[in-house]
């Protein structure tokens, strides 16, 4: 007895099915890629905002512990921030550390790494008026220069009282500060930070889409 063979049994996909599957994959890619890129860009500016807030709060704490004014320099052309302390404080602390070292002649001032505990041992009177030339970069680890992530820029740094553009933020030993508004601009959103003059408090004020922030 002959058993019929199903010659219509099919292996694989037809050209139409492959075309439909490829079309769906392309559509999914068109939707997913912009979402992924937007999320990445959003993460960059949020990271930049967190790092900036941390640096400003560190500068305020440094002014309180030193008993001296501390500046934060904002380099808008290179999107960098740096903590500055009185140059005489830097030099006196380095000299104190060098005096405790053997006079082998192998140590250089630039080789000395200072800790936050070293800085807490220093006190002095507030400098008035503040002269940026009398300040030097903070050599302690937490005060090192911060480079903003790619795609994030300092769009504005304004005095809260006058509205004038500035490039320095001052923190004083009594906890107060020069009030400023700092705007970080990303490709998808903008974050505004404010430093309150009376208390030196650093806070995030607004986070808006970048196109809305420009209007």
UniProtKB/TrEMBL annotation:
Domain of life: Bacteria
GO process terms (BP): protein secretion by the type II secretion system
InterPro entries: N_methyl_site, Pilin-like, T2SS_GspH
Pfam families tied to this protein: GspH, N_methyl
GO cellular component: plasma membrane; type II protein secretion system complex
Keywords: Cell inner membrane, Cell membrane, Membrane, Methylation, Transmembrane, Transmembrane helix
Domain General secretion pathway GspH residue range list: 48-197
Record localization: Cell inner membrane
Transmembrane regions listed in the UniProt entry: 12-37
Protein name: General secretion pathway GspH domain-containing protein
């Amino acid at each position: 007895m002959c058993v019929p063979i199903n010659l219509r049994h099919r292996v694989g996909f037809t050209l139409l099915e492959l075309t439909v599957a490829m079309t769906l994959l392309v559509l999914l890619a068109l939707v997913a890629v912009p979402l992924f890129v937007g999320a990445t860009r959003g993460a960059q500016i949020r990271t930049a905002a967190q790092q900036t807030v941390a640096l400003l709060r560190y500068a305020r704490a440094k002014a309180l512990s030193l008993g001296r004014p501390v500046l934060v320099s904002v380099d808008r052309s290179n999107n960098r921030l740096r903590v500055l302390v009185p140059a005489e404080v830097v030099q006196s602390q380095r000299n104190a550390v060098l005096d405790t070292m053997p006079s082998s002649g192998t140590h250089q001032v630039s080789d000395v790494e200072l800790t936050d505990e070293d800085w807490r041992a220093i006190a002095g009177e507030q400098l008035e008026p503040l002269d940026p030339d009398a300040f030097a970069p903070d050599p302690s680890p937490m005060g090192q220069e911060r480079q903003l992530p790619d795609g994030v820029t300092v769009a504005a740094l304004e005095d809260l009282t006058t509205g004038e553009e500035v490039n320095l933020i001052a923190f004083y030993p009594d906890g107060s500060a020069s009030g400023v508004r700092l705007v970080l601009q990303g490709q998808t959103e903008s974050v505004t930070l404010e430093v309150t003059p009376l208390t030196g408090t650093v806070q995030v004020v607004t986070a808006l889409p970048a196109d809305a922030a420009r209007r």
